[in-house]
């Protein structure tokens, strides 16, 4: 009888986890569909890095404009432009521009263009807590990397239940480092310049151009 109860209990837990996984998958699918429905997305964000052991606490702000797999990212004093083929990293402090070709088949690289859909492969996921943040219901999904070499222990992805937009992403490393990316504003279908994702070399006449490949 004891064995039967134990087996029944294990089965109940298993069914409960599967149900949670289906809920998590459904919510992630809704987020992906919403992202793909927009012509472009403009995000202002805050990035925080914390490590209690190393006494590190850093906050930075940035913004990114996304259209398909193209993007312009402004972060930590640098600008990164991806035109769909090459990445141009502009570093004003050093008056330097690094140019490199991107391997779009590299699924391990989380680029700004994958930022809102990176979770679709390489993770186990389950529903986590539901929080009320300034009147918004934020449902968290726990993501566990499936690659044992991944240095990240887990990721908590916060999703606005009403809009299906990502609110924040909390990443915990195996060595205790925690990084948090919080979306401060999320705008869609904005009027963009035709040259929004085009690198114009003559804007940087005194810069050293470093072609990495």
UniProtKB/TrEMBL annotation:
<dbReference type="InterPro" id="IPR029046">
    <property type="entry name" value="LolA/LolB/LppX"/>
</dbReference>
<keyword id="KW-0732">Signal</keyword>
<dbReference type="Pfam" id="PF16584">
    <property type="entry name" value="LolA_2"/>
</dbReference>
<protein>
    <submittedName>
        <fullName>Membrane protein</fullName>
    </submittedName>
</protein>
<feature type="signal peptide">
    <location>
        <begin position="1"/>
        <end position="19"/>
    </location>
</feature>
<dbReference type="InterPro" id="IPR004564">
    <property type="entry name" value="OM_lipoprot_carrier_LolA-like"/>
</dbReference>
């Amino acid at each position: 009888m004891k064995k039967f109860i134990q087996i029944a209990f294990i089965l109940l837990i298993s069914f409960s986890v599967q149900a949670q996984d289906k809920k998590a998958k459904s919510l992630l699918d809704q987020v992906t569909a919403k992202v793909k429905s927009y012509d472009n997305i403009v995000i202002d964000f805050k990035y925080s890095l914390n490590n209690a052991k190393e006494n590190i606490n850093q906050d930075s702000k940035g913004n990114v404009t996304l259209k398909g797999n193209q993007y312009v990212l402004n972060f930590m004093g640098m600008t990164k432009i991806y035109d769909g083929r090459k990445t141009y990293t502009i570093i004003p402090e050093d008056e330097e521009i690094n140019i490199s070709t991107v391997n779009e088949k590299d699924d391990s690289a989380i680029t700004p263009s994958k930022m809102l859909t990176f979770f679709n492969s390489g993770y186990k996921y389950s529903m986590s807590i539901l929080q009320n943040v300034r009147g918004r219901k934020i449902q968290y999904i726990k993501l566990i990397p499936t690659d044992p070499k991944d240095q990240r222990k887990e990721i908590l992805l916060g999703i606005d239940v009403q809009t299906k937009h990502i609110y924040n992403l909390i990443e915990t490393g195996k060595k205790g480092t925690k990084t948090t990316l919080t979306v401060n504003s999320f705008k869609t279908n904005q009027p963009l310049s035709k040259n929004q994702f085009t690198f114009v070399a003559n804007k940087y006449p005194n810069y050293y151009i470093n072609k990495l490949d």
